[in-house]
Amino acid sequence: MLHSTFTSISELIPGAKWQELFVKHWPAYRTWFLDKGKASDPNLHTSIEQFRRYMPELLPTYERLCALTGWDELASRFLTGYQPPAYIGGCSQVAWHRQLVRNYDYHPHLS
């Protein structure tokens, strides 16, 4: 039988808990982001404009997260989620009724 452990945090407003996780995981995400050729494309301005266009209701949260990163330009681009580096796909996704529906196609042992 497969056993997986998931952890979560709860913060009404992103703060020290989120920042601690960011500091822990950012080096690996940064390496992935840069290894895939996203050092400057798309630029921060374009990424933020697309974020504003498609998720304006999340802008205050996004700005709070950026502040918690020390306004790091690369992290700010990463946090928009706009045009992330390509990676091996294995999940089907569809936007449906303003929600993202995702099917995990991989076997649980590969999760």
Explain what the structure shows:
- With 111 residues, the protein is mainly alpha-helical.
- The protein has one domain.
- Helices cover 44% and strands 11% of the residues.
- The chain has four helices and two strands; from the N terminus they run ααααββ.
- Strands 1-2 form a two-stranded antiparallel ribbon.
- The two termini are 14 Å apart.
- The model has no long low-confidence stretch (mean pLDDT 85).
TL;DR of this structure?
The chain is mainly alpha-helical. Helices cover 44% and strands 11% of the residues. The longest helix has 20 residues, at 16-35.
Topology:
Elements: H1 16-35, H2 44-54, H3 59-68, H4 73-80, E1 91-96, E2 99-104
Antiparallel strand pairs: 1-2
Helix pairs in contact: 2-4
- What integer is the average pLDDT? 85
Quaternary assembly: single chain
Rounded to the nearest angstrom, the distance between the terminal CA atoms is 14 Å
Whole-number total of structural domains = 1
Q: How many extended strands? A: 2
Low-confidence stretches: none
Count of alpha and pi helical runs: 4
Strand content: 5-15%
Question: What is the C-alpha radius of gyration, as a whole number of Å?
Answer: 16 Å
Class based on secondary structure composition and strand pairing: mainly alpha
Work out the helicity level: 40-55%
